[in-house]
């Protein structure tokens, strides 16, 4: 029997490959509908009956420049050119972009909807704040619709952030603040607007420690302003920290409202640590992060860790911790009996932390997306009556 010639084999292979490839493409197209921008796969099909129809003159707006800390806004128009009511539902937005002009459905902001009658229009207002020291920015917001041709609309704001202020230093660091003592810090805020800054409200972002901070402002001398290249104004921010801060890591944000002449918001980080007669020790305690590191734990198996609360000073015998709060709620914290160490100048109190088997999932990895959990103790110490202990943990299945 003669073997087929090479060209016959090649032609047959090409035909077979084309058939397989075409079939795969057809199957993929069937299982994964295509989209054209905001329009769905049925965009070319004639709708039947009364339907809504969303039309927008623009989906992208070039804003130009915005000052760092300044607020901007823009209105987009959505028209319903269909014959049925158009339902708009607020979707996801970028980190500093908000969508307003929606009415909450059933009292839930996340399900906020808006109904547009046939032949009517509505406006969607996007608000945002310039962030960073300068450079291009792009903010986006999504609105879902019941238009079968256009199930979602993405609105985009583009522009450039320009510096309008500068803080020296860029953040206030308070290391080893004594819980029972007052401390002061300052920062110089320079502005680059056409007018001298008008200072509005001074506040702190974290309400749990706000009562321990007193803020003030004093205009800088002309010579200090002239020494900063390009600065046209400035003031000295004064921060007075009162006694009584909870022991542990200190993280606060100082917010300053300004007009130069546009309105802007200055945010200055403040961080450090608060020390006193109380301290923590144990294998699960990370002194560099000032947190309990429990890692990833199986909710089915559970886990256990041991800490020690160390009390010293003249009020050490008054320290009798009581658990006030735990996050996540599945943590079981038990306080043992305190025992003197050495000559009795220090008392060591055991703290048992248990994640029981069957605990529900939780994510407190001590990140921006998953904030730390906590153990809050009423200590009985007159200078440090409350101790909040950060907990880094993720409970999985």
Mean pLDDT: 83
State the oligomer.
Answer: single chain
Q: Count of helices?
A: 2
Report the β-strand fraction as a percent range: over 45%
Query: Class by helix and strand content?
Result: mainly beta
What is the number of domains?
A: 3
Major beta sheet, strand line-up: 2-10-9-4-7-6
What's the name of the CATH homologous superfamily of the largest domain? Immunoglobulins
- Indicate the CATH architecture of the largest domain: Sandwich
Largest sheet: 6 strands, mixed
Walk me through the structure.
With 397 residues, this protein is mainly beta. It folds into three domains: 109 residues, Immunoglobulins (Immunoglobulin-like, Sandwich), CATH 2.60.40.10; 111 residues, Immunoglobulin-like (Sandwich), CATH 2.60.40; 119 residues, Sandwich (Immunoglobulin-like). Helices cover 8% and strands 53% of the residues. The protein contains two helices and 29 strands. The strands form six sheets. Strands 2-10-9-4-7-6 form a six-stranded mixed sheet, with no helix packed on it. Strand 28 and strand 29 form a beta hairpin. About 4% of the residues have low confidence.
